[in-house]
Amino acid sequence: xxxxxxxxxxxxxxxLWNEIIELFRAGxxxxxxxxxxxxxxxxxxxxxxxxxxxxxxxxNQNFGPEVTRDQTVKLLKKxxxxxxxxxIKGRWGKEDFEDxxxxxxxxxxxPLKSYPKKPSCGKEVIQFPDWNEPRAGPSQEHIPVKxxxxxxxxxxxxxxxxxxxxPACKLVFRRELTQTNIEEIWKSMTLxxxxxxxxxxxxxxxxxxxxxxxxxxxxxxYNVNKQGIVTLEDKSKELPHWILSAMKCxxxxxxxxxxxxxxxxxxxxxxxxxxxxxxxxxxxxxxxxHFFDIFVSVLGLLQKPSKAVExxxxxxxxxxxxxxxxxxxxxxxxxxxxLNQDLxxxxxxxxxxTLMVQAFSRCILCSKDEIDLDELLAAKLVSFLMDNYQxxxxxxxxxxxxxxxxxxxxxxxxxxxxGADSDATLPPPSFCHQITTGKFEYQRATGxxxxxxxxxxxxxxxxxxxxxxxxxxxxxxxxxxxxxYRERFPSPETEAMLFPEKTKQKPPILMWALKKPFQPFHRTxxxxx
Length: 529
Fold this sequence. Notes:
Keywords: GTPase activation. One of its GO terms (molecular function) is GTPase activator activity. It contains 19 helices and six strands. It is mostly helical. Helix 6 (179-198) runs antiparallel to helix 11 (305-317), helix 13 (352-364) packs across helix 14 and helix 16 (437-461) crosses helix 18. It is elongated, with a radius of gyration of 42 Å.
């Protein structure tokens, strides 16, 4: 069985648990072992299980090489507790697994976890004011609006560039947006973008949207300092000064500004332990219990780093401002310590980066209910956070611009023409489906030419306009819609029948016209007297 990337979606931790069990059962070598003068078929040593599972997790793209041997042992303890494995005497249910030579085996079938059924929380419907309702005031109530009847005359006036008459219109003022309206717009568009990035049909199975506080989103976007760190309105929720000093000391080592240089060996380890103890005693992780599923879902996008960064950017906007600020300061300190070559080693046996992940992953992400893979998932997320913290913990500029543009659009004064049922600037959504070329041609002919043909006939039959105006309109129509005009007047003769020429009366014959026409003078013979 080949490992596969488990993408975002509901119950991702459960799906990963089931996949790891199947991979472990398929990949663990089983041999004959002897213990206390007795042979046991198809079993394995505890150390062999640790070696195999550690290699399996390290090569699995859902977890990666950051997984330590100690974390692998903890996972095997959970395997023993959940009867994924049992000792050679069939005992299980206790987490007494150790990395030693004890023998274990697989039961006939390892139990896979079923997907829990979450109670339906219902979709939250965000109420917005009626944007088309005019603002209260006498000036809006008494604006005269001329009713428009769409006859041939009005059609010509609206479409003729020569005449250029503008139909009657009025200004429509949007109802003024309150701060609550703006916050709800931020919440709605932020969650919509998060759902799109995750590629989910709905967020209902990974996030209870009722628990998302719209005020938190707005504060995390606008209440920031020059470094992009959140500024809190309630100063009582700030980190204690002594913890901030300790974090700055290690982050900026050896140039500590708030703490004097130590004189004893191991000072930096004592400072680090103080920071670990403070964050370890928190009752809830920084990413909160409510958002555990959404952050685990984001881990399914790590094959597409740009998508994962955007999803984490948006998800971190949902946090309470005090949590977001602590996360920003903590992850920045962790990243700087990991890259600081001047800082003495904080552990003799563990690399500094691995130590950072092990020490702080649980205070950043964990589940309220015990989930067997939460430590591995948290370690994966924290590693990605450390590598991309500057982008992830900044405000997503594209999302901010789109929401601000939308709010400005809703506040803008609109022009509404008389006879229009809806606002021209905000067309109602339309839905379409694909049709054949023949059906399209038929709809085009019947849907557009028939009303134009009726309009042409109305112009032809209108006896209230002069012949000169009628010819002018027909000429304009012929120029704009030649096909429709050709259907009505296929030949010049049919067009001439519309304007028959009047018969001219012949003038009366005059008497002088009957006389001989003037003849030229003929020279004759002259007589001389």
